């Protein structure tokens, strides 16, 4: 029986596509291999978002090509190939097939053709239009990790951000049908998943191409009605200006939706934001986050910023630091600007020296770290539900996440007990670090002080 091995690089959205390709191969009789050298087919689901990610993707492909065994197939998939397919073929001669983000569902056809007839040049599957929501194989676009599952609700993006290559790679927004998303959520519920994480390049734009107004709020209402027994539903990647009053109300009145918002703001000075072609109304951000904190007790806020964007002055950067102090985010991710050919920002060049970008990044982290620590220290003495994701039997520890932590990007909760992986366990928080928390099972420590409950506000009737 043939074997496959998939390496997925980059973001959670890539993880979803890698899982879907693996599912297709498994349905066709392939078995997963633990290591590349054990596989007949090796697939690298690449990332091509910024320069360092591209470098990593090329390095992994080159290493695998150099180690190929006779008869083994090496396929490059994902964002790098979607944008730089010809370049991949030139820089990695050992690649047999190239498939992009929009045709991952063709992986079986590509593998079959490669196994039937040797090809002196890589075979390509890189059409020009997205196909999300039109999967003729009916494969769920989900990726399960322990008790959590990513569920992709859309692909592509129609936003004009000057620094971003996503529209060049993914194309414009294509939303998945609501019925298909609900169906997959039920499948995940039946599989015992405790947390469904909704992802897209911009979740708050969901349904725009389907003619839906407030599409994300509408989807969340449908999901919480369809799978009321899934404890956590998490939303990632909201866009400034599109967190509507209705979305806030739905998040506030549906307890399954964890009180967590990831809204990448990228900067806080209007002039910088205008050069980025991003929403520049900072007053809206202040008002909306104040409104959300009033409506949703214990709301955890996460954002990301870019430092060193072309033209960023010391005054603009100082405004960003002041903004971070004002808002008191629970989590902040920061990136140094990466010059990307083909984007609108390419015309601005990359004038800020690398050492200045690094210094600003360090200053931003120095401001945020004590804020993160204080936000974590506020959890000490409370009891939080923790989704257990791993166990260290030797030291008698379990590792998990609270509602305040998205997978891979936020902190962890270290629990002083061996607990079942995939279980949601009440944990009394006993200690706090900059990024992580420490706790003990509430059953072993007494109930402690629970986190203040989220009130169940009465849902308003809406006219059709």
Can you describe what's shown?
With 464 residues, the protein is an alpha/beta fold. The chain folds into 3 domains: 3-125, Rossmann fold; 142-377, tm_1862 like domain (pyruvate-formate lyase- activating enzyme, Alpha-Beta Horseshoe), CATH 3.80.30; 382-450, Beta Barrel (OB fold (Dihydrolipoamide Acetyltransferase, E2P)), CATH 2.40.50. The chain has helices at residues 12-27, 51-66, 79-91, 107-116, 166-170, 178-190, 215-226, 245-253, 270-276, 282-295, 314-327, 354-377, 442-445; strands spanning 3-8, 31-32, 41-46, 73-78, 97-99, 123-125, 142-145, 148-152, 154-155, 174-175, 195-199, 232-235, 260-262, 300-307, 331-336, 382-392, 397-401, 413-415, 424-432, 437-441, 449-450. The protein has a 6-stranded parallel beta sheet with strand order 2-1-3-4-5-6, sandwiched between helices. A 5-stranded mixed beta barrel has the order 16-17-18-20-19. It starts with a strand and ends in a 14-residue tail after the last strand.
